[in-house]
Amino acid sequence: MTPNNKGRAGNGNGGGNGPGSRPAADHCVRVCKAAGCVSAGSEEVFAALSDALKQSGQSVNCEVKGAGCMGLCAAGPLVSVEPEGTWYREVTAEDAPAILNSLGGEIVERLHLPTNTPFFERQERIVLENMGRIDPERLQEYLDADGYAGLNKALTEMGPAEVIDEITQSGLRGRGGGGYSTGLKWGTVAKAVGERKYVVCNADEGDPGAFMDRCILESDPHRVLEGMAIAGYATGASQGYVYIRAEYPLAISRLRSAIRQAEREGYLGNRVCGTPFSFTVEVRLGAGAFVCGEETALIHSIEGQRGTPRSRPPYPAQQGLWGCPTLVNNVETLANIPSIVRKGSAWFASIGTEHSKGTKVFALAGRVNNTGLIEVPMGISLREIIFDIGGGIPGDHTCKGVQTGGPSGGCIPADCLDQPVDYESLAGLGSIMGSGGMIVVDDTSCMVDVAKYFMEFCMSESCGKCVSCRAGTSQLFDLLDKITKGEASEADLALLEELCDLVKHTSLCGLGQSAPNPVLSTLRYFRDEYLSHIVDKECPAGVCSIHRDVEAAV
Amino acid sequence: MTKARVATVWLDGCSGCHMSFLDMDEQLIELAGLIDLVYSPLVDVKAFPAEVDVTLVEGAVSSEEDLHKIRMIRERTTVLVSLGDCAVTGNVPAMRNLFPVKSLLRRAYEENAAQPVAALSNDVLPKLLERVRPVHEVVTVDVYVPGCPPPANVILNTVRAILSGQPAQAAVNSRFGM
Amino acid sequence: MSVLQEVKTLTINGREASARGDETILEIAREHGIFVPTLCHLHGLSPVGGCRLCLVEVEGANRLLPACTTRVGEGMVIRTDSDRLKGYRRMILELFLSERNHTCSVCVSNGYCELQSLSRDAGITHVRVPYRYQRYTVDASHELFVADQNRCIMCTRCVRVCEEVEGAHTWDVQGRGIEARLISDMNESWGDSDSCTSCGKCVQVCPTGALSEKGKSVAEMSKRKQFLPYLTLMRDKWK
Fold first, then answer.
1. Cβ contact A311–C128 (<8 Å)
2. How large is the average pLDDT for residues A442-464?
3. Which of A250, A468, A488, B93 could form a disulfide with A492 if both were Cys (CB 3.0 to 4.6 A apart)?
């Protein structure tokens, strides 16, 4: 049987039925094996369930399987039972017999996690559609969920130009932060002249609090590989690299096993899906430098050089890896591709707002009840995300704002929460869509302290190549530190603003150009907090320890 | 025409800026027609007077005494001039900022002393600040004249410019170092 | 004819100019007698765009562009001397001056230093940002030269001249951000370097007193950068 047929056979049966809806056994118990739940002890739960099943002597017709991220990390370890669709929260190894005994009968009420809540119902899943529903280490489960059908369709029914046109029509924009039109980028690489071309998947996710790419790769690695292969076909590249940070060992091992499986089954390698198209993927590990998420620094790093950015133009689309035209796309961008090719651009473009199509995955963190990984349609309001999906703020505290885009983004105040989530409106608020970190801030946080935290991050992650970022972020951090200690004057505030403007407009790469954003946005919306530290020598949130004895500070 | 009340002070510096001031030579006579030198290491006045029009500050702020002095001088001066690199940048005195004060004193008064000093007292000697600072980091400065030292004609031109009401122009033709 | 060799016409500071497609904005500016300050750029070495002093305004571009790495384009309208650019340049020079310990009065390169003269030309009378006062070691282990990192501005001219012209690659950069600094070989003393040929090119291209010849006292270290364009020209000629 050719891989081509195999793929089609899988697709034919998978259509219409959800994955895992036809388990070989009567019941399928899935345990979340993504990083959040693993750290909460899901490996032990998995082992306990497997043991309990063995000891029961197969009296219940059931199988225990792993699954990718199930989303509600705050309630981990998570376990689901199919086909009933029952979810259990905060499961421990001791709960294993109770769950197995309940199969086919009453559910275990004390562990039950209702899924008819806004957290589940308000989400719209494209990128995460298979997450928690398939075993990331089994290719067959991905195939059963229409996996590689998009690649098959592209290779057998569409020309490269048609694929690019489809992506352009879909309105998909880069999910790594920039929001550049994906179709346009693909078209540029396709047009660029070069004997060899490359597709690079940027999985160097480094924003504090962001774990979208990690979960996608841990939970559904084939989806990203399929997106890369389609990109390779469309742009004329036959080699792909996934640049992933070494701090993600689970994602790396699942990605590597997915590459092996896909090569074995003919979805990667020579003659993909039985067509003349060849595409191989290699994994490259980053050594933990945030700046290597910047595409030119990432390319230098893959080439084995010091990970520092260079001036653009020329853009990587013209001169990238080893001087060849190179397409650099983020994990989530590539994970959207299979669905768009499979279901068509019109379907994708029907979701979202006028200029921001489709969905966006966010890592919801900070002072919010339901922390976890969510996927929402573009255009949803920040309020819906925080209060409906996120379940609001814990305790009696009030929401002060939300930080999007990590150290490159900004802080949006509570009175702007009705703004829709799309590239333009977030930019208008002084923040960015970013890669998807979303940190909710309440009245227990000091905004100057928040800005200082992100500035410290940028300062230590600056590569040091250009002076504006190298010395600028260091000076900005020192000034913010001075403010939080109550040692700053209003002249320091003016200097802070002048330096922000300088670093933003004269830094070489995106890291420096966006480093002042957290300061600028908190200055814009929470200037009174800065002034409290400077004039009244007080921290309204009580976070900063102010030196009363300013004389001694000199 | 009433003469301008001008003072010069010497904080942590080598007095080279004052030497350069004297290098005006015969032009000092012209200057004497324009100003009254109301306080200076060059004249015998013990206390810094009230209401000074222009004060030229040589030297960086190194000790608690310097800090006290410069704050008082700032209050009593209309136009404060940072004269020379020590006042403007910290210069040589600030090279000690790379070391903690404690280890400096130990090196100077114990390890390298011909007769080690038993205990250092701040009763007589002003306490050193942890860091030497340029004047403008401590008080507001109106005019900067870099140079180590600034040439005599630059100092003269600066004073002339200030007296004729053009302080912004004062610092041309001078740079860090020399 | 390659696209890069086509002649482009453009406007720089209101003057019309023509250029080959492979020329940079900096080259065109200098050709027309327009002074654009640079510290990391040096004719004969690959451009890096790290000192940010040569940033210029190009109409239609969404950000400032470094003149040293940006190639000219047809119809480009370039401005090199706006008040905004002058303000940025002043602050950038102040950042350089505050970053390490530049005590001009006791420096071997006093009077010959590019940072010093650019600061004077930019009208810098004092540094508004606080000095950092971080201590860097002085490496005097080499028999002919001294490396004083207190005076280094991370322009990486020495790294590039050593790799690209001398072919020794003795110098490189270690660490990142404000902690980044030069190292010789695998972070060994310069005197112990196996790769260093003692050619002295790094010393001659260094814009400040960070690299100097041994035995030179204050204000004695003039540099001879003239060798570089000549060397490059001769090499290209006999390639």
1. no
2. 96
3. A488
